[in-house]
Amino acid sequence: MWRWRNRPSARPADAPRSEQPPDNRRELWVPEARRPRGAETTPPGAAGRAGTSARGDGQPGPAQRPDQGDGTFLTWARAHVAVLVVLAAVLGGVAGGAVGAATVSGLSTPPAQPPGRPVVLAEGLPRIVQRIGPAVVEVRTSSLGGHSIGSGTVLTSNGLVLTNFHVISGASPAGRITVQTGTAATSGPVQPATLIGADPKADLAVIRVTNASGLVPAPLGNSDQLAVGDPVIAMGAPSGLQGTASFGIVSALDRLVRVAGPSLGLAGQGPPVTYRAIQTDAALSPGNSGGPLVDQSETVIGITSAVFEGTSGRSIGVGFAIPINDAEKLVRTMVAQYGPK
Fold this sequence. Notes:
By secondary structure, the chain is mainly beta. Helix content is 7%, strand content 33%. A hairpin with a 4-residue loop joins strand 10 and strand 11.
């Protein structure tokens, strides 16, 4: 039996099914198998995700979504903390519109590690990037309202990809979701994808690439084993630049983050979402949303989701990732239903 790395046996993954899209009031949503391709898209002028508490008291801070304007959309929001800062969900917009020991259903798990915490040396970083890089994809959502760019983490060889809910929530029924593999030097084919399950309260979603085969799944780790000071690498396609990686450390754990609700297309904007995140100083930029945060054991321990920016619009070295363990229920449910048989 496949097991999540260093985790106890799986909890039952019971997920309700519905023909209705998520409205942030359900923990887990699984659409019908014949649901039309596509999800929802952010309408023109829609702005993005949002604020968290950096006050040190564990309380989430308020947030709002200003428009980016010019028909594009980029998720930004302001939070009042010690000073006025901007927490941006790291979702990009384009102009003109906005864990190999055992597997189950193609979901990859890492080999057992020896006792003790490995130390990452500079020469080991390229190896980690080369190992995880093929499992990182660019995710684009398009509609009449514009285009958004985010990232995704491959779960199975047949095309299941984990990303942030806010990356794909704005796609209208008339819009489309596409996925592209690639590196800084080469780009793979652009392939259509379909939203198959989501946990809006955790800002997580799983999409399925149409007719995919041979994709490289990412090794999933155990975020409960992280410690402050652990080195990490953030990977993704910021601003559409595939094969991008940045190095940092775990700056804090269990940071309470509150973000503005995602766009739900014609249904408007969902309620604010609050979750506990991994804080990192690895550089994150618009378009990193949904990409993996990777630890020194070459496993995915988080999904990058948001970043603080100062009032000048520049990063202040405070980024956030959703712990991979928090995605376990959604991932298990989707892989059991849609993964390789």
